[in-house]
Known about the structure:
The complex is a heterodimer.
Chain A: H1 36-44, H2 47-64, E1 67-72, E2 75-80, E3 83-90, H3 92-116, H4 121-124, H5 130-134, E4 156-164, E5 167-174, H6 181-194, H7 196-201, H8 210-219, E6 231-234, H9 243-253, E7 256-258, E8 263-266, E9 269-273, E10 278-280, E11 283-286, H10 309-314, E12 319-321, H11 338-346, E13 353-354, E14 358-359, H12 363-371, E15 376-380, E16 390-391, H13 397-409, E17 414-418, E18 424-429, E19 432-441, E20 443-446, E21 450-452, E22 457-460, E23 476-482
Parallel strand pairs in A: 3-23, 5-13, 6-7, 6-11, 11-12
Antiparallel strand pairs in A: 1-2, 4-5, 4-20, 8-9, 9-10, 14-17, 15-16, 15-17, 18-19, 19-22, 20-21, 22-23
Helix pairs in contact in A: 2-6, 3-11
Chain B: H1 3-35, H2 38-52, E1 62-64, E2 69-71, H3 75-83, H4 92-105, H5 112-125, H6 130-134, H7 138-159, H8 164-191, H9 200-209, H10 213-219, H11 226-235, H12 243-254, H13 257-260, H14 264-283, H15 292-318
Antiparallel strand pairs in B: 1-2
Amino acid sequence: MAQDGHTDDLFSDYEIEPEFPDEMFRSDGEPHPQCRELWSALRAMPADQIVTMQEHAERSFMRDGITFAVYGDDGAQERIIPIDFLPRILSARDWHQLETGLAQRVKALNMFLVDVYGAARILDDGVIPVDMVLGCPQYRVQMRGIGLPHGIHVSVCGTDIIRDTDGFKVLEDNLRSPSGVSYMLANRQAVKTGLRDLFRRHSVRGIEHYTGMLRQTLADLAPRGNSDPCMVLLTPGIYNSAYYEHMFLAREMGIELVQGSDLLVHDGHVFMRTTGKLRQVDVIYRRIDDDFLDPLVFRPDSQLGVPGLFHAWRLGNVGIANAPGGGVADDKSVYRYVPDMIRYYLSEEPLLANVETYLCREPEHLDYVLDNLDALVVKMVGESGGYGMLIGPHATRAERDAYAAKVREDPANFIAQPTLALSRAPCLADGRAAPRHVDLRPFILQGRETRIVPGAFCRVALTPGSLVVNSSQGGGGKDLWVLDEPV
Amino acid sequence: MLSRDAEGIYWMSRYMERAGHVARLVLEQLQAVQDRPLGAIERGWQRIYTAMNRSPGGGELIAGGEDVDEMLLDAFTLVDDLAFEPSNPNALMPCLAQARENARQVRSVISHEMWACLNVAFLEMRGVRLQDIWTGQPQDFFRDAASITTTFGGIADATMYRDEVWHFFLLGRSIERAQRHLALLDAHIGLFPTGERHWVFDWGSLLRVCEARGAFRRVHSNEYPPETAVDFLVADPAHSGSIAHALATVAAACSVIGGERQDEPARRVRRRVGRAQGLIAYDWPTRDAYDDAATRDMLKVLLQACLGFHTDLEQAYFRYAVLDLSAGQSR
């Protein structure tokens, strides 16, 4: 790559491959304009200094318990999400495109949920196949006919965004319990501390107000416009993989972190058990799945939920974020129709594109997928976290054949997408910068207004060549700097 | 305050206190093993296990007739049982692990500094095995562990907001401390009757386990007369490790928690504490009329009271039955 006299710096072994866009460099090897200062400063910095900062940050994550749980044969293990200390920079123009596109998308998704649990016009009009929606395991028949204040089904959304040679694309919408925002904030804190001079020289937009905005968004759900609502965060408990995040958000918002056993419902109202007396709860930010929310309505064997909660919510006596039933809108098959939703409800063209998606439930799509397994990424509709998928180009013939058999057995349970030329960004590897694939997950808050902090949990596939960025599959994270500059 | 958080704080505090106590017990015993006569070493082990009401490894500690006692287990096995044995609820590492589990539950209400202290200590110590430290200076490990629990208490004192969280922290620490000290004192007097002539070491060691030796020397003597030592550990309200001090702390906390509730379960806790305080104030044997048997009876009564506090707290604040939902609700 182009260098200007430096023969042994952080980037001297860095290789750019034209098929993968690079977040720091143009295809000619020169840094993007917004990355020039960072690149120049990093080159002047001894590599071992950055490595030391990164190690220090990871030690502090362990010390502070910024961990997630990974479940294996030998039980749960606490691990940190490895941080890569080289920040990724996004220009103000790029961020503006993302921000407006995400707001548009979440607005349409909320309208879809209002519709699909109400008049179902979009189904009547044949925009989305009826059986795909009504047959979706995440479609909750109990939600039908329930009108929500301000039409907000999804208050907190984490949307996975990739960039390929065509630009930004939405990979996935996470509308149920999106996690990762605490790592976004932790990564920022660590990098801001370690690279403080560099950080100061860049006009990086702040993200630290996220929890304040989340609190405002939740308060918007308070019944009857209560201006000082009692809000709680409902967690499955310390063995949940995202428990650190639950604790962090509750602490930062100054609200109670509760488990199902702390709450009870009486006379259509929700109360929490305190040392003094029962205290009425107005808003619940739940981080447990629909299935476990209320054993009287969903899974009867749930030990995590609160009997009667759904009834109290339906009466309008408590707000719940996110509302039950949102999973039907982030289903991997329904995803294909989100651009159509945007056109249908907003009469606008989508500002962010989808990744091309083949639905194996369609016979012609199935044939194409089976014929091109070696070029596609195939995912199970009901899986997440990088589990249960086949990355065709990286799989052996035997693996592809075995997977094809599963697809043929239950085609509706699979979708396929082209193997993406995910963009890459410089990451530290053995004391050098090396290209690794990245995506990003911004968080969109929908209350009376749409709120988005200018940042994201930027996920990194730390294994060379790997496209899997999920933390449960060995992925890491890095700080994303959105520059404050005129658009 | 959320009841589950109150319970988590309470248990975190209890387990940290228990961890510090057992670390000091083992540390003292390891010192004794180096330079004490065999009989004293044996009685030292007996003191620990009698106070814990435990038989190591499911077997007996001592075998022998009336004249000859014989240790059945070696020091390595016993220290392993006291430090690392997962099935021993009083062992050091299981206590630290439990304290950390409870701290994880209540991380949103304790200070970051408290969590970091406990978490770092746990992460550093969790991989240690006795065989790793036995050939070196095992005392250092237990000295460090004891020091961590003391530091943790200091950090809590320096960083916690004085609301209910703080009072439940104090309740856990005080009740655990009182229980441990009462059981240890009872076992100690049983093995080292005050009327017999003993090495200064035995009573000095007891005071050190109870973090009282320095204060005792300053206030009384460096010869550790047994009756005075017992009185100091039980009834001196100025000694922060005394039973009287623990009860006063419990009483003060109980007057604040739960928004000064006046219902029967809350009153029951306060009544029991008041009675225990009264026992020490009015019935405690004086040094002029000291009697081991009467003292041990009193210690047992006080120990029962401490066990009762726990049950009362649980019923009043942690897992109370919701009988009347129309009463006591708040918005």
